[in-house]
């Protein structure tokens, strides 16, 4: 871990000492830039009963470039595609070096509570969300039961 930039070491220590409610992020033993993340589905969302596994990777140019994050657990969501890629502005053009790993994880957790069908990665889910939100929410609950529960 000594070869890591001080900022990454500090952020990692803070994630361990002050965990974010509903989120765990643990660095890999073999690569301290790679984190195993678990996000508990937020209450009052169709994901509330789920445990979603993600991976977060800090590229060499972090914090000048955003972390790379993707869902490993299948999820029915308009802003997450079948490969687990996430459509979130702070992971792309709205990234700022002032943001941190915990900010990114909190933003992803918030995205589960407030899907944005107007900026989709999963067009099918986005259409259903726009045209029949109750059915979209039920499909999200069904997928959560099927894929995100131990």
UniProtKB/TrEMBL annotation:
EC nos: 2.3.2.23
Chain positions covered by the region annotation Disordered: 129-150
SUPFAM superfamilies, alphabetized: UBC-like
Molecular function GO terms recorded: ATP binding; ubiquitin conjugating enzyme activity
Active site: 87 (glycyl thioester intermediate)
Alphabetical keyword list: ATP-binding, Nucleotide-binding, Transferase, Ubl conjugation pathway
Domain of life: Eukaryota
Residues covered by the UBC core domain: 3-149
PROSITE patterns per the UniProt record, alphabetical: UBC_1, UBC_2
Pfam families: UQ_con
Family the entry assigns: Belongs to the ubiquitin-conjugating enzyme family.
Name this protein carries in UniProt: E2 ubiquitin-conjugating enzyme
Organism this protein belongs to: Gracilariopsis chorda
Organismal lineage: Eukaryota, Rhodophyta, Florideophyceae, Rhodymeniophycidae, Gracilariales
